[in-house]
Amino acid sequence: MLEVLDTAGQEEYVSLRDQWIRDGEGFVLVYSISSRASFQRIKKFYSQIQRVKESAQAGSPTYPGSPSLSAPTSSGPAPVMLVGNKCDRVTEREVSTQEGAALARELGCEFVEASAKNCVNVEKAFYDVVRQLRRQRHNSSGGRSGDRKKDSGRSHTGGSGGTVKKSKRSGGKCVIL
């Protein structure tokens, strides 16, 4: 199972963002192809993810429920997927597909353009992050299967106002910034 936390990049969640990043095991960074400003914020979010994850690995104190206590040690950086959303808005495009792909290469992450309105590549973004997480877990566990962690049963309200669906067993947390 997967827990998804959507902050929608909203500023009212800034104080909680570091904690969510510490808890997150995979990240989907979303910008609108019809908003150059949202595209330009991606590097800031990516840098924040790297900073928080590096400080967590460097021995920052852990707390009950944090992935460092309950999940296997990952091999490598947390998986990140860059998503150019609203690709259905062709006439409003401010960010080219090539710019999105170039940024993804620069950040060392995967890239896809999507349309939530038309259900294009939305599932692909999540499936790809989960595949990366599974690959990391497989590599870090020496190929052992069954590396699942128990979940605390919490739920979060995302920046879009929707409550995130939670199950009792969770294979990981994915944060959308």
From TrEMBL:
<feature type="region of interest" description="Disordered">
    <location>
        <begin position="135"/>
        <end position="177"/>
    </location>
</feature>
<feature type="compositionally biased region" description="Basic and acidic residues">
    <location>
        <begin position="145"/>
        <end position="154"/>
    </location>
</feature>
<dbReference type="Pfam" id="PF00071">
    <property type="entry name" value="Ras"/>
</dbReference>
<dbReference type="InterPro" id="IPR027417">
    <property type="entry name" value="P-loop_NTPase"/>
</dbReference>
<dbReference type="InterPro" id="IPR001806">
    <property type="entry name" value="Small_GTPase"/>
</dbReference>
<keyword id="KW-0547">Nucleotide-binding</keyword>
<feature type="compositionally biased region" description="Polar residues">
    <location>
        <begin position="57"/>
        <end position="76"/>
    </location>
</feature>
<dbReference type="GO" id="GO:0005525">
    <property type="term" value="F:GTP binding"/>
</dbReference>
<dbReference type="InterPro" id="IPR020849">
    <property type="entry name" value="Small_GTPase_Ras-type"/>
</dbReference>
<dbReference type="GO" id="GO:0016020">
    <property type="term" value="C:membrane"/>
</dbReference>
<dbReference type="GO" id="GO:0007165">
    <property type="term" value="P:signal transduction"/>
</dbReference>
<feature type="region of interest" description="Disordered">
    <location>
        <begin position="56"/>
        <end position="77"/>
    </location>
</feature>
<keyword id="KW-0342">GTP-binding</keyword>
<dbReference type="GO" id="GO:0003924">
    <property type="term" value="F:GTPase activity"/>
</dbReference>
<protein>
    <submittedName>
        <fullName>Ras small monomeric GTPase-like protein RasB</fullName>
    </submittedName>
</protein>
